[in-house]
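It would be a great kindness if you could assist me with a short task in structural biology. The matter concerns a single protein, recorded as an amino acid sequence and a row of C-alpha cells. Kindly check, if you would, that the fold set down in the C-alpha cells agrees with what the sequence suggests. Thank you for your consideration; the sequence and its C-alpha cells are set out here:
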Amino acid sequence: MKKMLAFLVILSLLGHFSVQARPLPSQEVGRTLQGTITISGAFALYPMVVKWAEEFRKLHPRMRFDISAGGAGKGIADALADMVDIGMVSREIHPMEIQKGAWFVAVTKDAVVAVINQANPLVRELVKKGIKKADFARIWLNEEPPTWNELVGTRGNNQVHVYTRSDSCGAAETWAQYFGNNQEDLQGIGVFGDPGLNEAVRKDALGIGFNNINFAYDATSLQPMAGTVVLPIDLDGNGRIDPQENFYGNRDAIIKAIANDKYPSPPARDLYFVCKGQPKKQLVAAFMKWVLNEGQKFVGQAGYIALSKAKLSLGLSRIGQQ
C-alpha cells in the first residue's frame, strides 16, 4: 500500500500567488508601507493568507507578496533557512524546530476531514452510520485495511483504496495524531498536496483520503468538492450519525461545529506563522499585527475559525512593539 502516485499541482494556479505593486499618487507614498513579504508552506493556510494579502494591499498598495503552497514541512524549512519571511505551518511546532530558532504565532484555526468518492457503492450507508475512530485507524494504519462492506456491516468485498499525502504536511501529521501516530505511520498511496489528494479520491469510486476544510469544500458553493463526500466521524461510537454529529453538509456547518468544540481536536488544530527568530523586518511585524487585529474579520468568510481573544493577545505580545 506504500506505492507512490505522483499528482503534480499546478502551482501557477494554486500554489503560487504574487501581487504586484501599483503606482501611488506622490502625496500617498509617505502614508503607506512598501516592500515585499515572502511566504511559503501549508496548503491549509494558503487560501487564508492570500485573502489577507489582498486586503492588506488595499491599505498599502505599494506592498508586494510572494506566496507559495508546498506543505507545512516546506514552510518551516524555508523559514528556518531564511529563504522566506514567513512559513505557513498547519501543525504543532516540534521542539527540535524551536531549538533551531523557530518563532511562531497562531493566526487562525481549521481542521482535517475524511473524504470519499460520491460514487462509492455504499455511500448512503457510510454517511448514515459514519466511521468510528478505531475504524479510521484500521484504514490508515493497517497494511490490509477493512473492506467497505466490513465497515458498514453488509455482505460483499468492496476494497478500500487508501490515499495519503506524499509531502511532509500538517494535514497528514494532524490526521495521524488523531490516532496517536505520526505521518510516517499512515498507509496508502502517496499523493502530493491537498488538491492532488482530493482529485485522486474523486477519480476512484472506492477511494478514501483526507483534506483540509478549504480543499474538501468548494469556496463558492460551500458544498463538498464535486464528486466527493465528507465522511462523518461516529463520535460516540453507537453505529449511527446522530443529529448532534451531523454537521458535514456544507462548510459553514462544520466551521460552526469546530468553533463549538463539537469536532475533535485533533484533527482540528491551530495554524501558525513561523519565522527564524522574532521578525526583525518592520513590514513583516506590521503585517502580522494587522492579521491578528483587523485581519481576523476575514477569517469566517474565508472558511476558517477565529482564535480566542486570549490567543490573539498572546500572539500580539510575542510580536512586540515593532
